[in-house]
């Protein structure tokens, strides 16, 4: 009498691997979306940091400070996956830390491969810098 051996057959193993591969392929697009959202948050925070640093430098040195805004097609490597859209190529902070503009300014970061992923930064006339949750719909 032959004893039954315990374990998986080759066919059972191949079916299990195929099912796992199908599930992984379904999860990949949402995982990529999560990665891009995280990148968007990081780049937004980085741009806010650069703006705050320029404002602080203007106040500290008691002189105007201008900062170039990386725009679409910029050579800056950090923004290779993102385009920053706004009406101006640079911002200037006065020696008092105010924005040298008559109105507040909105900067919008948009992913180049997924245009519905975007984040906005508002720079107020008084120099306040914040992430704008309304995507700069109001001025």
Write the layout of secondary structure elements.
Elements: H1 10-61, E1 65-68, E2 82-85, E3 90-93, E4 105-111, E5 118-123, E6 129-132
Antiparallel strand pairs: 1-3, 2-4, 4-5, 5-6
What is the CATH topology? minor pseudopilin epsh fold
Query: What percentage of residues falls in helices of 4 or more residues?
Result: 25-40%
Write the H/E string, N to C. Answer: HEEEEEE
* Total tally of structural domains: 1
* Secondary structure tally, helices: 1
Structural class: alpha+beta
Query: Which value, in Å, is the CA radius of gyration?
Result: 25 Å
Instruction: Give the strand line-up of the largest sheet.
Output: 2-4-5-6
Q: Specify the CATH class.
A: Alpha Beta
State mean pLDDT (0 to 100 scale).
82
Largest sheet: 4 strands, antiparallel
Overall CATH architecture: 3-Layer(bab) Sandwich
Q: What is the H level of CATH, i.e. the homologous superfamily?
A: minor pseudopilin epsh domain
Principal-axes shape call: rod-shaped
Distance between the ends? 86 Å
- Strand % is 15-25%
Poorly predicted sequence stretches spanning 5 or more consecutive residues: none
- By DSSP, the count of extended strands is 6
């Amino acid at each position: 009498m032959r004893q039954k051996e315990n374990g998986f057959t080759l066919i059972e193993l191949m079916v299990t691997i195929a099912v796992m591969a199908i599930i992984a392929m379904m999860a990949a697009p949402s995982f990529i979306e999560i990665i891009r959202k995280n990148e968007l948050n990081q780049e937004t925070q980085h741009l806010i940091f650069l703006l705050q640093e320029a404002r602080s430098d203007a106040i500290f040195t008691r002189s105007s400070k201008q900062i170039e805004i990386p725009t679409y097609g910029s050579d800056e490597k950090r923004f290779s996956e993102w385009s920053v859209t706004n009406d101006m190529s640079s911002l200037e902070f006065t020696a008092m830390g105010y924005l040298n503009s008559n109105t507040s300014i909105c900067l919008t970061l948009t992913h180049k491969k997924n245009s519905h992923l975007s984040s906005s930064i508002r720079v107020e006339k008084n120099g306040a810098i914040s992430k704008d949750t309304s995507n700069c719909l109001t001025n």
